[in-house]
Amino acid sequence: MNMLLHHVLCLILHVVSSSQYGTETIETLMPNVKVVKVELRSFTETQVPLLCGDSYQDTEVIWMKDSEREGQGNQIQVKVEEMMGANYSCHNAAGDYLNHTLVLVQDIPSPNRTRRVLEKSHDADEDEYIRCLAKNYNGTFHCFWKKTTYRTSAVVALVQVGQFSGRNFSCSVHSDGAGLTCEDLDSCSFAEEVSRIDLTIYFRSNYLLEDYTVTPFYIREIVETDKIHITKVEGNTFQWGYPATWSLPCSYYPLTFQVKVVHARESCDSEKQVLLKETKETKFTVTHSSKRYRFCLRAKDELVDRPWCQWTDYEVKHQHKKH
């Protein structure tokens, strides 16, 4: 099942603090995490200041990097080269752990910036890497992405959602690491949305950090119904119901259904249809004379202009009666 993302917070300030070092900017993304923002095409190295803690001013502090001694003192400078960040931990003279700082490197936005973690959606009209959809109007939405071949081990480091809209969300990353689900904790499905949802997801691959921002959206702009399940077939009569995930009552959230009949060897996407009709009913009788055909069914919100859901199909194979 879903793993709760510990660093999912709404209303997080993107930059807690920052410092300028030449052409590089060093920012504190969240507690114990510093980000060196650079142009990776030209970046070679920079110095990053580390602080073990204000309470350790009079303590003998030893810094470690990957089990090797890095320096001594409550405050030190460490060298970061190219994408070679690291996890630095500080200890007292007895070797007891005191604190740590994770240093990541991020390529700053530029026209020629290369994205390394996620693949661009193949069917996207714009520069889209993350696709979000909602199965109803209850305030919950789901987002999906695909990692590049060389960054399959990348993980979500931070999710910022509702930062500018003031809405309160709780998010969890899917167990396969290829998506997340967010729930609006203050949502009322009958209330009109007054602000779009803003969403930025930070991915970490080793010590590289990349952020992806989704174009702000209303739930109504990403609603897509689940596939329809045909519940009963008697002869040429088909019956179905609303998806279990759809908002209730149905009278307030009506669906329109599209019925399509094609030859048995054709798919539902075929343009060689025998019949194509829209209906608001949940029952339909096919008057097609063929003994074999494919019955296709899909739905969409009747009141909001959204794409149809995926087809559900049923192949009819009537037997010839023996005389």
TrEMBL record:
It comes from the Eukaryota. Residues 128-204 form the Interleukin-12 beta central domain. Residues 1-18 form the signal peptide. It comes from Oncorhynchus tshawytscha (Chinook salmon). One of its GO terms (molecular function) is cytokine receptor activity. Its main location: secreted. This is Interleukin-12 subunit beta. Heterodimer with IL12A; disulfide-linked. The heterodimer is known as interleukin IL-12. The keyword Signal applies. The gene is IL12B. Keywords: Cytokine, Disulfide bond, Glycoprotein, Immunoglobulin domain, Secreted, Signal.
